[in-house]
């Protein structure tokens, strides 16, 4: 008779102190050695970041997963689309061949760590929009570009239709790449990243209709608006960055003369345009690191990153660009308890929370992701 081991329950981990959890995570790290790679996105809470082997923005984390050599398991302290991307890149055919067919397991410590923006575009909605657009304009002349903050099914759609994935650090280059192929671009799911980037390429708002998947016809647009379009934007946004407002910029400028406003390009146009500098989370960090002591900043991105920058740069004056708390509640779901629980389950041969993209979706997503990694 065989007995099947049961996975540990999460509940007991919730009552352990952070110190106990840290010890258990460190013990798991020691046991797994080079086989384990813990990746952490910059928005994670400090105690999780402390456990990460590598931290980065979405682009860098994708590169790290793509380049990983010795590891056989990645614990992704980020959100669902990031873990999917890591699975696709770490297990692409050439890497599998190098490892004699051995897969890299990708764990998302809490399966509920999703992204509200990614959830604003379902594959069925994208396919419907594409078909409907085809009744008005030639879809052969549209290159789809998806922000990496999207489900793997959207990345696969983009791969199949000659398109590309972008991150906030290469959106400009990705849209340029797309315009070298066709005269129109469809950009999803973040309208703000799409708009802010295209405005910097001399494309005007009247050339950027917004496609609302819940509108009864043509995404809420006229035929004329679609015919005049250069970039068709999807009606999606980040609920965190949406909360930064122009009046917050005005308040900081008035109270702190000389202050610089530094924002993530997921912020709405009216805030983005008022900023002095912008960039991905990685670029925001580099900008602060490179600034002379005594510089003053109001930063419009997720709270945990801004608080960490404040801690790490006491020589600079750093403010959070909002009087209200803007934090990514789904990133915050990853905590030490989930990390310890998922690592111990893995070690004990009862892995939980494995992210595995099906072969067909992975194959086409990879086409679009490889283009992303080539375009910078
Ligand atoms: P980057 O880390 O690419 O700047 O992205 C920010 C973000 O919102 C991740 O979801
Ligand atoms: Fe998604 Fe916004 Fe959270 Fe990034 S910050 S993971 S875009 S909800």
List keywords for this structure.
376 residues; alpha/beta; Rossmann fold; five-stranded parallel beta sheet; 13 strands; globular; binds 1,3-dihydroxyacetonephosphate; binds iron/sulfur cluster; 4Fe-4S; quinolinate synthetase A activity; cytoplasm; metal-binding; pyridine nucleotide biosynthesis
Q: Provide the number of structural domains.
A: 3
> Uncertain regions: pLDDT < 50 for 5+ in a row?
none
In percent terms, what proportion of residues is strand? Answer: 5-15%
CATH architecture of the largest domain: 3-Layer(aba) Sandwich
| Largest sheet: spatial strand order | 6-5-7-9-8
Inertia-based shape: globular
Protein name: Quinolinate synthase
Keywords: 4Fe-4S, Cytoplasm, Iron, Iron-sulfur, Metal-binding, Pyridine nucleotide biosynthesis, Transferase
Pathway: Cofactor biosynthesis; NAD(+) biosynthesis; quinolinate from iminoaspartate: step 1/1
Catalytic activity: iminosuccinate + dihydroxyacetone phosphate = quinolinate + phosphate + 2 H2O + H(+)
